[in-house]
């Protein structure tokens, strides 16, 4: 083809492109004059999709995507909850779970069951820690990513699932689970007894109790009170807040109030409402003077940091473990109209203990603040941390399953349940064992708290 013809063809193509672009530009929809300036681009894109998109349009999906994008652009703590997950989210805040109740982990040879949650469909179906899930509804998990398996089993619209399970290298009959609601245990002990009751007293000689709070929901303070009622002979308490992601602010304040007779708990700073201080009240305090040690780590966050920080700031508890996450933001939940779900938006920040209400709180929404420092630093290696996390889930299933897990053996046949070896569980955990030794030593907690108070007193330090 002659070069002159090629040039003409390219010129025609270029002209066509310019004409098409120009035509589209001139016919673009314009937002109404009343639209706020910051929403004109959003309106423009919405109209562009409606006028020019070549496929079918799901208006609700487009709106949800737009809302999700706006909210998630704010910070890592703000979120959009879709309508199909909204009920489950709110139930969770009330201490209920809807689902199958499986704690899973991705390992080299497939999908490992860390443990079924106590009282869940998976628990009652007989699924055990260490089981391998090799198929879900006939689809091999080897052909699926872990995220796909997790999403499939946590889909709120899914009412049942058939699992193909391998136990000790032997396939079991297919197990069908029916999705249902079951309660969350946010307050637990170290192990269960043969009657499935939590064991809180872990050192009878010293009267030391162990109580773990996994998260803060509306019923957590009441659960803690019920646990305390079973401990009339307790002389000291280990409060485990490790790996606690937080939860409801009122629940955190109520738990702190059970252990603190008076003093500032937290001050919340809101740009719309100004500072608001929450104080402990003398009435209702369960153990106002009993020595307390709180366990914390890098996954202790938000409401859990409020409890740990307030108890430490008021000289009420010694903190053992590692620096906490440093999440100083508070999110508020707002339902959307037309059944479009809800948004959780960062609306305030907090500072624990006594603060100057005129000073704004430091830090970003997640991890921007310095976190809560322990009085006694006891690090835990990542692999040991994973092992201890698994052990906590397994211990909830009863002494027989726990004993088998600790011994690396199959679950024993029905019969008398073995007594849990509390000493072994404590010795495996360097932070817990350090707390027990500290509480068993007369005056040790008080000595650390006196030193911490002296270190924070400007007059003692010689500050001007």
Automatic annotation (TrEMBL):
Residues 86-155 form the PDZ domain. CDD domains: Peptidase_S41_CPP. GO terms for molecular function: endopeptidase activity; serine-type peptidase activity. Keywords: Hydrolase, Membrane, Protease, Serine protease, Transmembrane, Transmembrane helix. GO terms for biological process: proteolysis; signal transduction. InterPro entries: ClpP/crotonase-like_dom_sf (IPR029045), PDZ (IPR001478), PDZ_6 (IPR041489), PDZ_sf (IPR036034), Peptidase_S41A (IPR004447), Tail-specific_protease (IPR005151). It holds the Pfam family Peptidase_S41. The chain crosses the membrane at residues 6-23. GO terms for cellular component: outer membrane-bounded periplasmic space. Belongs to the peptidase S41A family. This is PDZ domain-containing protein. It comes from marine sediment metagenome.
């Amino acid at each position: 083809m002659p070069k002159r013809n090629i040039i003409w063809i390219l010129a025609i193509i270029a002209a066509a492109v310019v004409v098409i672009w120009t035509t589209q530009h001139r016919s673009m929809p314009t937002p109404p004059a009343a639209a706020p300036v910051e929403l004109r681009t959003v309106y423009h894109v919405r109209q562009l999709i409606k006028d020019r998109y070549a496929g079918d349009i799901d208006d609700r999906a487009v709106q949800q995507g737009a809302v999700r994008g706006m909210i998630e652009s704010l910070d890592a703590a703000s979120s959009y909850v879709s309508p199909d997950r909204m009920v489950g989210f709110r139930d969770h805040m009330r201490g209920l779970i809807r689902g199958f109740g499986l704690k899973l982990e991705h390992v080299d040879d497939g999908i490992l069951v860390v443990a079924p949650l106590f009282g869940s469909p998976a628990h009652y179906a007989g699924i055990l820690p260490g089981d391998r899930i090799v198929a879900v509804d006939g689809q091999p998990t080897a052909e699926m990513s872990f995220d796909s398996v997790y999403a499939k089993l946590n889909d709120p619209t899914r009412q049942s699932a058939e699992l193909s399970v391998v136990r000790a290298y032997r396939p079991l009959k297919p197990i069908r689970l029916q999705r249902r609601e079951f309660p969350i245990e946010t307050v637990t002990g170290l192990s269960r007894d043969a009657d499935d009751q939590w064991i809180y007293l872990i050192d009878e000689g010293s009267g030391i109790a162990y109580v773990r709070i996994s998260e803060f929901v509306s019923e957590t303070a009441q659960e803690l009170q019920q646990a305390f009622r079973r401990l009339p002979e307790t002389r000291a308490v280990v409060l485990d807040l490790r790996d606690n992601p937080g939860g409801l602010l009122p629940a955190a304040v109520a738990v702190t109030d059970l252990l603190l007779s008076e003093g500032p708990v937290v001050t919340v700073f809101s740009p719309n409402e100004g500072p608001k201080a929450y104080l402990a009240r003398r009435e209702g305090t369960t153990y106002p003077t009993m020595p307390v040690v709180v366990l914390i780590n890098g996954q202790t966050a938000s409401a859990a940091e409020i409890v740990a920080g307030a108890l430490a700031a008021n000289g009420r508890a010694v903190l053992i473990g590692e620096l906490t996450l440093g999440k100083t933001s508070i999110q508020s939940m707002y339902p959307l109209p037309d059944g479009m779900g809800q948004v959780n938006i960062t609306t305030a920040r907090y500072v624990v203990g006594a603060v100057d209400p005129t000073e704004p709180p430091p830090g970003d929404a997640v991890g921007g603040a310095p976190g809560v420092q322990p009085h006694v630093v006891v690090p835990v290696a990542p692999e040991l941390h994973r092992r201890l996390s698994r052990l906590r889930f397994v211990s909830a299933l009863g002494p027989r399953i726990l004993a088998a897990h600790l011994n690396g053996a199959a679950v024993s046949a029905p019969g008398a349940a073995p007594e849990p070896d509390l000493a072994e569980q404590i010795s495996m955990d360097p932070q817990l064992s350090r707390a027990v030794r500290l509480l068993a030593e007369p005056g040790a907690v008080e000595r650390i708290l006196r030193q911490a108070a002296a270190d924070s007193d400007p007059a003692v330090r010689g500050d001007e």
